[in-house]
Design a protein that fits this description.
This protein has helices spanning 15-28, 58-65, 68-78, and strands spanning 2-9, 34-41, 48-55, 86-91. 34% of the residues lie in helices and 31% in strands. The longest helix has 14 residues, at 15-28. The radius of gyration is 13 Å and the shape is globular. Helix 1 packs antiparallel against helix 3 (68-78). By secondary structure, it is of the alpha+beta class. A hairpin with a 6-residue loop joins strand 2 and strand 3.
Length: 96
């Protein structure tokens, strides 16, 4: 499996909008090879969120990243963030 972890900072009062955009995107467009998404809120800073996304393979992840639907979702997500997310891509070596 392959995935990414994004560290991001929601604009004040925008957390629910960010969560709604993510939920709406998955309801409208479930990418081929998609496995899961988890979104965490930091205990120390409630505006800081971490999103972990898993795909069946690096190829599925990269194919999704290149779609117009993913680009549109990303632009909608940015409306709720203070800046670009910090992305960390990699191979998922264990999952339960």
């Amino acid at each position: 499996m392959w995935g990414t972890i994004a560290r991001m900072r929601a604009k004040p009062g925008h957390e629910q909008g960010l969560l709604d955009v993510s939920r709406e995107e998955l309801a409208a467009h479930r990418p081929s090879g998609f496995v899961s998404t988890l979104i965490y809120r930091s205990v120390d800073d409630p505006q800081e969120l971490w999103m972990a996304v898993a795909f069946e393979s690096e190829e599925a992840y990269r194919n999704n990243a290149a779609t117009p639907e993913q680009d549109a979702w990303y632009r909608r997500m940015l409306e709720h963030l203070e800046g670009d997310p910090e992305w960390h891509d990699g191979e998922i070596v264990q999952s339960f």
